[in-house]
Automatic annotation (TrEMBL):
The lineage of its organism: Bacteria, Pseudomonadati, Pseudomonadota, Alphaproteobacteria, Hyphomicrobiales. This is Cytochrome c. One of its GO terms (molecular function) is heme binding. One of its GO terms (biological process) is electron transport chain. InterPro entries: Cyt_c/b562 (IPR010980).
Length: 123
C-alpha cells in the first residue's frame, strides 16, 4: 500500500496543489481526475486494511473534498480551492490515523520541498 501512496497518490496530491496555486485550472482538473483514479486503484488493490473496507473508507473521506475541489476548479476560485484542498489533506490524515499510520502526516507542499509529506520529530 505504501508503494501506491508514495508512487501515485502523493505526487498527484502535490501536483494538484501546485496547479491550483499557479491558477493552472486545466492541469488541476487533470490531476484531480488522476488522484481519484489512483485512490480507486488503491482500494481495488487493498480491499481491506485492519478489517476495514478500504474502498468504503476512501469514498467516505474523499467524496466531499473531491466534489468541493471540482467546483473550485470549475469556477477558478483560488480561495475555495485552498479550502477544499485543506479538507482533502485533513481527510487523508484522518485515514492515516484510523488505520494506525498516524506517523504519516500530509500537509500542503511549500516552496522549499518537492513533497507534501510533513516530517516532524516525535516529542
Amino acid at each position: 500500500m505504501s508503494d501506491l501512496m508514495i508512487g501515485t497518490i502523493q505526487p498527484r496530491h502535490e501536483r494538484l496543489w501546485r496547479a491550483g496555486q499557479d491558477g493552472n485550472w486545466e492541469f488541476a482538473a487533470y490531476e484531480l481526475g488522476n488522484l481519484r483514479g489512483a485512490f480507486g486503484r488503491l482500494g481495488r488493490a487493498h480491499p481491506t486494511e485492519h478489517e476495514t473496507s478500504l474502498p468504503d473508507m476512501i469514498t467516505s473521506v474523499t467524496e466531499r473534498p473531491f466534489n468541493n475541489l471540482t467546483d473550485a476548479i470549475r469556477s477558478k476560485d483560488a480561495a475555495a480551492f485552498a479550502k477544499a484542498y485543506g479538507e482533502l489533506t485533513d481527510a487523508c490524515n484522518s485515514c492515516h490515523q484510523a488505520l494506525n499510520h498516524g506517523v504519516v502526516k500530509i500537509g500542503r507542499p511549500d516552496d522549499k520541498s518537492q513533497s507534501d509529506l510533513a516530517l516532524h520529530k516525535a516529542p
